[in-house]
């Protein structure tokens, strides 16, 4: 039972780290966005907001 729990926690930590890396990448893209790429920028901004919401819900569920 403990080994299964340990594997699950490691898997969750890995997925959370990946999510944080993707969020950082999207935030970097948004901050460097050229003014001419508004449609693509809005889509990336929506994606960033969705990722942040997913990360927040993950934190709430794990507590």
TrEMBL record:
InterPro entries the UniProt entry points to: EttA
GO BP: any one term: negative regulation of translational elongation
Name the UniProt record assigns to this protein: Uncharacterized protein
Naturally occurring in which organism (per UniProt): Tetradesmus obliquus
